[in-house]
Amino acid sequence: MRKSIRLILVILQVLFFSCSLKYGSTVSVEDAVPEFSFEDAKYTRVEDGKVSFYLEAGKLEQYKNSSATYAQDVDFTVYEDGEITVSGECGYLSADTKTEIYSLHDDIYIDSVEKDLKVKAKNLKWDGKTEQLVSGRTDNVTVETSEVKVVGSGFSASGVSNSYEFTAMVSGNIETKEEDNEKTDN
Question: What is the reported pTM?
C-alpha cells in the first residue's frame, strides 16, 4: 500500500511540476479559423478601368486579424496597360498586402514576358517594396532566357537593376549569337 501511495505521489509531482501553461498568450478561434474561405476562387483587380492583376486558386483563405491571404494551387497574371507582363503558378502562396511580402512554394513557374525571364523553383519570396525575388540559400532555381539556361542555388533577382545572381554552385548553358558584322556596299 505504501509503495502505491509513493508511486501516486511521484506521478502527481511529475504532472504538477512539468505542467507548462502560457497564461500571457491566448489563441483566439478567430486567429485559427479563416474568416473567408473560397474554393475555385477567381480574383481580378482593376485599376483605372484596366485589369492589373488576375488570380485563380483552388483554395483561398483570409483570416480576420491578418493582412495575409493564403492560397493553394495558384495561377496568376500581372498586367500593365492591358498587356501581360508576368504570369505564373505555384502550389502555395502567402500574400501579405500590408508588408508586400509574397511567399511562393511548390512547383513555382514564373514567366516575365517583359524581361524575357522564366524562373522555376520550389520556394521563392518576393518583397514588393524592394522589388527583390529571393530563394533559400540551398534551394535550386532554374533561370531561363532566350540566351541562358542555368540552375543554381542562393538565387536573388532585382526588379530595380534588372539583374539576378546566384551565391552558390551554378551549372547550365549560355548561347551567344553571332552578330552579322558584314557591311554592304552601295
Answer: 0.73
